Amino acid sequence: MATRPQAHLLRSPTIWHWHWQLTAPTLLGALAFLALFWQPMMTLVRDWWSDPEAGYGLLLFPVAIYLAQRRGRLAASQPEPALGLALLAAAVVLRYLSGLAAELFTMRLSLLGAVGALVVCMAGWRQLWHWWLPGLLLLLSVPLPAVVLGSLALPLQLKASQLGAFLLEARHVPVRLSGNVIHLPGGSLFVTEACSGLRSIAALLSLGVLIGGVWLRSPWSRVLLVAATIPVAMALNGVRIFGTGFVVYFVNPALGRGMMHYTEGWVLFVVAFGLLSGFAWAMRRLEGWTTR
Questions:
Q1: Quick one: residue 58, left, alpha or beta (phi over 0 = left, psi -120 to 50 = alpha)?
Q2: Distances (CA, A) of 250 to 119, 168, 182, 186, 256
Q3: Can you say whether residue 72 is alpha, beta or left, with left for phi > 0 and alpha for psi between -120 and 50 degrees?
Q4: What residues make up the domain containing 201?
Q5: 232 in a domain, yes or no?
Q6: Of 22, 119, 150, 265, whose CB is crowded by the most CB atoms within 10 A?
Q7: E strands of the chain, at which residues?
Q8: Do 215 and 233 reside in the same domain of the chain?
């Protein structure tokens, strides 16, 4: 007897009008967000998929979403619509200006800024700070501009070439260094941008932030761990160039190319992960000792 009036209320125009009033702003806001930020979203996914220098973003993005879901909603946070709308307006202005300049990096930063503004609008600034680790991982997943990459790649190429040549000379391999080209009796090694270590530094930097955010508790230990990723990446990249030159000189020049060359990179990346994990374990023990 009581179910018929309830069904009649659900079918009444007043109830449907009330539901539409609630869902219409959300739907229109989502459509406006997609219309404004569709281009930076699609170009970012495209670079993750096709650019080897940015491929680690395919891993960072789902990890960031998982960590945000794991940390959950902060009970003490309250929505701040005024601040959130102001930040959203600033992100939209940045999106418009970056679109006029056709600058992808700033355009993608405006996308992250808009997402953060929506979090502040719906859950407050404290909730955004509560998700600092997922937000930082998302920021690191945005590829740097080509101008910055070009200015960083050449000095890293030269440093990696010098370190590789030094290690080869220490093993009594006759070498002659010309910029980023290592001349050997059996051939020459050209240290390209892919071998500069920039990709390793970017990936290990993200890995250091992830390990430090999950395992460590104090800010100083996290900073030390992230700072350690840069010399570790540069040293292991020099070891990679040394290993390539070693097998080219003593074994077979053909081993310096193809699968063997890429296998060395993956093996040394695993070694770098082990070194960072060991350093994080030591910092965790040091945190416990200082607490006691």
A1: alpha
A2: 58, 11, 15, 9, 11
A3: left
A4: 147-291
A5: yes
A6: 119
A7: 176-178, 181-184, 187-190
A8: yes
Q: Which residue has the tokens 């902060």?
A: 74
Each residue's pLDDT, cut to its tens digit, for the chain (292 residues) gives 444 544 444 445 555 554 555 566 677 777 888 888 898 999 999 988 887 777 788 888 999 999 999 988 888 888 888 998 899 999 999 999 988 887 888 999 999 999 999 999 888 899 999 999 999 999 998 988 877 776 777 777 778 788 888 888 887 778 887 777 777 776 677 666 555 556 677 778 888 898 888 888 888 888 999 888 888 888 887 888 787 777 777 776 666 565 455 566 667 778 888 888 888 898 888 887 876 6
- Tell me the one-letter amino acid at 194: A
Identify whether residues 59 and 161 lie together within a single domain: no
Do 287 and 255 lie in a common domain? Answer: yes
Asked if 60 and 182 sit in the same domain, the reply is no
Q: Give residue for tokens 């060991």.
A: 278
CA-closest candidate to residue 279, choices 210, 229, 237? 229
Q: In which residue are the tokens 């209320």 written?
A: 9
Q: How many domains does the chain divide into?
A: 2
